[in-house]
Write a structure and sequence with these properties.
12 strands, 36% strand, three-stranded antiparallel beta sheet, mainly beta, elongated, 5 helices, single chain, 2 domains, Porin
Length: 312
């Protein structure tokens, strides 16, 4: 379930340049879970290397010392603080984790590709970010405690989702809701939190569109039309479900749904500041993209980046 240190490290460093050639990552098309997809995409696909933080990284104390005017327009609000240190933190009883921050570094989308022999396979391709610097998650809080002999974290509050859009090399744009909602992460050990500590678990990915959204033809879930009346195709049953005798071509477009899907995220601690009770590291997230309110099949999104957390 948890990724190896060197593999995750190099996975984050890879794919930082938009449209760079993606490593060849093959997988079976019948794998049902996002966890298996992430494992196939990351494990063994990258060369080994060392994690090197950004040269312009800043600590939480340095971030708190900045004024509003210094932060405004600088992009710092979209950045996660770095942690310096190699200590450890013991978790006794139920403790509060605050200021959790996730800053994505690269995004990849699973696509069907054809090799030289004509075989169709799935691989994650690099994308170009289209969203402005509003894609990081910040201010997330929750509780951590010992459960079943291992550390467990439950997310409770904060800015735990962000609307993001990436563009594939062919020009197709893929919107998705980068989410950490309802995270229940279980650690590999009972602690302490130190370099190499890993934890992960499922997250909830709400619908990219809300119930009040209307498509270009005025169709919606709670407001708008049930179907586009001007479409002649509805008269021959093209807008009906297969159970109703239709061809199902337009049924998904008419039948708007607020879909709540599932994703998965894994964390690995790289540094700990025991004096300030803070730690940071890297993460890998797998989740579905937008379904256009049930009209499209979601794509699998592989997000890699850095994270920060602090005990209150």
């Amino acid at each position: 379930m948890i990724y190896k240190t060197a593999v995750i490290t190099t996975a984050i460093l890879a794919g930082s340049e938009a449209y760079a050639p993606a490593p060849k990552m093959t997988m079976k098309s019948d794998m049902p879970s996002l966890q298996k997809i992430a494992t196939a995409a990351v494990a063994g696909a990258f060369s080994f290397g060392a994690f090197t933080p950004n040269a312009d990284a800043f600590t939480k104390a340095e971030s708190n010392s900045l004024s509003y005017l210094q932060v405004k327009g600088s992009g710092i609000a979209n950045r996660c603080p770095s942690v310096q240190g190699t200590g450890s933190i013991n978790v006794n009883g139920k403790q509060k984790l605050v200021d959790i921050c996730l800053e994505p570094v690269s995004w990849q989308v699973e696509e069907d590709t054809t090799d030289k022999k004509g075989n169709i396979k799935k691989e994650f391709v690099n994308t170009k970010l289209m969203t402005r610097q509003t894609y990081s998650l910040d201010g997330i809080s929750g509780t951590m405690e010992q459960k079943d002999g291992k550390l467990s974290f439950i997310e409770e509050d904060g800015i735990d989702y962000a609307a993001t859009t990436v563009q594939l090399p062919g020009g197709e744009r893929v919107p998705f809701l980068f989410s950490l909602k309802d995270l229940v992460a279980k650690g590999t050990t009972s602690g302490p939190i130190k370099e190499g500590f890993e934890m992960g678990g499922p997250v909830t990915v709400p619908s990219y569109r809300t119930g009040l959204f209307l498509d270009p033809k005025g169709r919606g879930t709670t407001t708008g039309y049930d179907f586009a009346g001007a479409l002649m195709a509805r008269q021959n049953g093209a807008s009906l479900s297969e159970e109703e005798g239709g061809s199902n071509n337009l049924f998904k477009e008419d039948n708007k749904r607020f879909e709540v899907l599932k994703g998965d995220v894994e964390f690995q601690v790289k540094s700990v500041n025991a004096e300030e009770k803070e730690f940071g590291g890297i993460f890998v997230s797998t989740q579905p993209s937008d379904t256009d309110m049930g009209a499209k099949v979601p794509k699998n999104i592989l997000t890699k980046g850095i994270f920060y957390a602090r005990f209150e």
